[in-house]
């Protein structure tokens, strides 16, 4: 921070300090005589608590002791403490990792991180770049401040965790390469990785292997006692032993079989033994031993379901996402929500579904494959296709509803749905709609990919288009770029030039937000050529405005003004008053940066008048804040405008706008010599930036 005239530190005489919560590099200097000191600061950050609930754990004393050894091993700073819990599917790797992590939470006071890497899921494994983004956001770092590249994200992650004591559970890893960037290098942290593979690449770099074997016979019997009750097991000891043998002492197979027996309290264990023995014999020529045990248990449990529950099980296996709630499940299977809640409860009780925090459900990867196998075996191709389309239509309808509530001025045509949801979600307000988009983002991206894979290009395109408010308000620009490129792929597959140009504008905005300005200009330039060819003057103006934003970012302010003036002329010719107002805001902000406050005031006053009739409170608040900045020399008028703008932003829950107003109020206080107020406003704005980082650059 330069202690020049008008700077906050100048009010402290010769003091030179960094206050508040700071995320990212800070340049701290007063009188510079040959050196600048760079501080990478991370102030008080949230303590993430991401561990899913654990389950029953039996017969794993040795594995837990090895994890204790890893925790206590002192290898020095910079050497990650890593345990790789490996073994075949269904052996209980996740249960061991979560049990130990929950037991030792007190040892890791700075938080617990968890990620399902989906290394063996039916769809693609999760990229480490995405997991890093989630982890960094869990510490309150603004999405706008998270870099896009893997190396840059890994570096930021290590900077955050370097002095912290954390436990990081990385579940279902596919390879060492997927895991390595996620391992905390701090001496007080431990990473527990689960995988079907031993991950020799990690072991070679010092990780400790924890290989899980099947339960002992006594351990398997104890698991049955825990799930069925000791009296029932002791009443039929020979049948219990045979059941353990038929399940090959695999925890997953035993839990599924026990859940089936628990739901049939009058059954003798002998009945389950006979049925399971017949199923194993049928599978014997097809699968290796652990697959036989688990598949036999799954199939037997599936056959014990009522027809309605069995149908829900196999159709939910087609859901295009990783987790789902009862609303998504109801839309997928085409049943009323109240009825589906009961079906989900039965499937959880049968150990065919896992319930996860937040009222969601998910399949174990082997159970998901089994559910899909049952669907393909028992349903016609038409039913399979209709089930996936129902889920996609539910996503599209809900995303479109959220989008229209958040940004009512967008002129999106209503999507054409073959299966409109019978019980659509009704959002109470903008914030709830935004929260839903953010919570469901991973599923929405999977839905877009599924639509593309099924040649439902228009559905994919409409999903991507409706996601825009999430990126506008909450950043996620690295993820945005990937999704928008899927939209561009869909537009080109549709041979829809208009949609292609629209998606090029979107990818350009994402690249601009990521600081990749030359690439953004290229995308905008390609879009501009298409709009010219289509003769769409309004869209030509919009793309010129976006090119002006890039010029402004590059510091070419005169060129930016030329672009904005061209766009403004076209918008006025097309009677696009709202878009003209946004362009006037861009002009006003650029003029403020050039020190031409009076000209800025004229432009911004016109923008305020044009926006008065629009249903766009965010930009109405923005123009008030810009007007306050332009009138900073008139302290009373500026304070009134900024206070009004701050109220608007708080009323609509726009934390980005709130931070914008607070920074402007801080500048005003500083110019008036009110250093305590200035510091308070600036610290509040920094705290909001650190907590949210909502995108303020791409007002549309």
UniProtKB/TrEMBL annotation:
Q: Which InterPro entries match?
A: P-loop_NTPase (IPR027417), TPR-like_helical_dom_sf (IPR011990), TPR_rpt (IPR019734)
Domain of life, per lineage: Bacteria
GO MF terms here are: ATP binding
Query: What SUPFAM superfamilies does UniProt report for this protein, alphabetically?
Result: P-loop containing nucleoside triphosphate hydrolases (SSF52540), TPR-like (SSF48452)
Q: Check the record and name the Pfam families matching this protein.
A: TPR_12 (PF13424)
Q: Which UniProt keywords apply?
A: ATP-binding, Nucleotide-binding
Q: Which residues form the signal peptide?
A: none
Keyword Transit peptide attributed? no
Q: What is this protein called?
A: ATP-binding protein
Please give the organism: Sphaerisporangium corydalis
